Amino acid sequence: MAENKAGSSDPEVTIDVEEDGPLKVTGLSAFFNSRGEAIAAKKTVFLCRCGASKNKPFCDGTHSQIGFTGAKDDDRIADTLDRYEGREITVLDNRGVCSHAGYCTSGLPSVWRSAVEPWIDPDGAAKEQIVETIRKCPSGALSYLEDGAAQTDFHEDAEIQISRDGPYYVRGGVELKDAAFGEGASREHYVLCRCGHSRNKPFCDGSHWYAGFHDDEALTISKAARAGEAGEEAWVAVGSPEDFAEGKVQALTVGEKQVALTRLDGELRALDGRCPHQGGPLGEGNLCDGALRCPWHGYDFDLKTGKGRGNEHSVETLKVREEDGKVEIALPKPKRSDWTVSHVIAETLAEWGIDTVFGMVGHSNLGMAEALRVQEGRGRMRFFGIRHEGAAAFACSGYAKATGRPAACLSIAGPGATNLLTGLWDAKVDRAPVIALTGQVQTQVMGPGAFQDIDLSSAFEAVTRFSQSVLPDSDHAELASLAVKNAVIERDVAHLILPDEVQVIDAGKAGPGRPEGRLSPTAITPPKQSIDYALARIARARRPLIIVGYGAREGIAEVTALAESLNAPVITTFKAKGLIGDHHPLGGGVLGRSGTPVASWFMNESDLLIVFGASFSHHTGIDARKPTIQVDFDRMALGKFHGVDEPIWGDIGMTAALLRDGLPAGRACSDQRGELADRWKAWRREKAERAAKDNGQGVNSAILFDRLAEAVPEDAILSVDVGNNTYSFGRYFECRAQSVLMSGYLGSIGFGFPAAMGAWAADTGRKVVAISGDGGFGQYMGEFTTAVKYGMDVTHVLLNNGELGKISKEQRDGEWKVWQTSLQNPSFADYARLCGGEGYRVDRTEDLDTALRAAVAAKGPALVEVMTDPLLT
What we know:
Mean pLDDT: 94
Largest sheet: 6 strands, parallel
Shape: flat
Strand content: 15-25%
Number of strands: 43
Number of helices: 25
Distance between the termini: 81 Å
């Protein structure tokens, strides 16, 4: 019996190391893959240790074909037990049996110090932290002394687990026969080589990393997924005999199976409730000469045999009995595969980190929906069912803009898929990564014009960077991997088209795709010459101005540090609003149509523009006449609309840091902080004067956004819509550390609230506030019920002026008649309460503070309807 640390005993589990062959494991019941899923094991199994089996983790005899040797190498690390004494703990270490899993060096680097001697500092952390880290060491190389005795054994249950692309972790006192353990090494837990390259066989020495050993674990993952297929026939009570009258057909749901049950000539008959022709509901059919007729197309099926009459189809017959006053139906063993093409795709998406899906389940995506349901049940994904597919796409865009990571949206074929397009275009033009999963009609009816059959490849061609149909013989995991890779690297939309019948094809032994080795770090060091030229220009500039766009968000700390070294103002594009706070001594606000006179003043007075991550949109109006240094990680963005003086291709943060470190001592630039403070004072006086105006037609937008800035947390995420409300927000809301999401280049009305849902789903821990007009909210107001359903903590501030105010203004500015811009609105506050959320209406300025603060404090969706003056924007 194998004794564990606690002294309890497990059934004997042994490992024999066969000479130049596999590991022979006997008595093992706890065997797991790297994901913790159980692997079914016989009483005796042979595990591959040459690394070349095509049936991993099991041996297939390949070791004899490749000349595998199980001998130790002479140049292996010496078997020596080293002792490191500290004030509170003594750490023991034998590097000769270390598997280099990295739990020590990455988990507690203050104690286990790479490339430093002595490499262990037992006083580098608290004793408890050191003990906890030692207990994580899988190889048994690490132990510690307690009361003079070495503590080496930490696990109670005998088990073997496969590590990802690595060795076997053996725990719980499994006996390894005839093996030479290293000095002081644990015999209760240890690590065995699986790649065939260790110099210390049978133990792992970390060589799998250098050898590039990979195992997709397809066999064990697919088998684990199929565990639910092993069902048996089960009798299920469906009623009493009197419930089923002669000649009547009843539709029943038994478990998850649809059944048509009828009584004919006193005898009960049961058929599968789904017509094999096109899935019609046989339970809603009628009897015709001893046959059951489908209500859709009139196909007849014999009640006794299930065979079609006058058609080539057959339907499954089910056993039915009457016993002890009950009618029971025998549910057959489930026939549907639990490892389908859809499961492979969903698993691959989860492996790549896609953890959030917005969408609508429907008839042409049910196979994919089932696979997503399984992932949600495992805690690897969350699914949010929306009311309109357009909201799903916008939510994905908001998620991506809040995190930089893609979420997925799901739709059916035809209209469901086309409903996604506006939100996907928003993501595309703003370079936000999104995955679109669209159902499709069955391949046999594609093309001729069947119900909901449209050419999705053509429909999505322009909006996607990657769009592929998933076919029966496709490499399904690879298609899903390429979809995510394209979305992430290209910051674009990727699309998979899923024909209905392909979704449920059994996937055999295929495994999911994984991201390891397929993505590289994104930091790009700019050429030295580019930095030198830029520094030469900066050295001569007297009034340099830094402009940051949305693309600078990951490097804003370094950009701000550069600005502080130059005493130069930092202004932003509208999309980048909030990257530097408006109360920062160098923050100059937003440039452009939605901006402030502070920003435009400093651009006009500048003699050098240093632009980070901006796209030079016409809306922003960066002055092309000014000498310009432009930095971007996207080469296509450099000089996008016109030539610039110094285009620099590089990572934003890295480039800003290089510029700051290289600044010459004798630079000519002046300190502009005082002038900037004066300009803000003047603008704030102007804002106060505007806020004081009252036409008696509603709340002034200037005072609304002034009060909103005081009410929301300083780290909130603000999702703004399109219209006058957005222009007013840009001018009057002063950011502290808030992040702003918007439909930038597309400028799509309706973006605000669905994108806020996406930002909330990103689970950032930050308050999410949406801002829109009545026109924008009306586009997707049904999604407020979605927010209530999922308890989304989103506050929505709605400016209700009874019209499409921006369009009215454009008509007036263009000297047109104001025409067809008025709106017939409900009470949005009442609507929010009817949906189950909080709703507040503000008609007077003096009620703003109370309503805004109550809504922000509410736990769950809340809406503040502010009746605003359309002319005071």
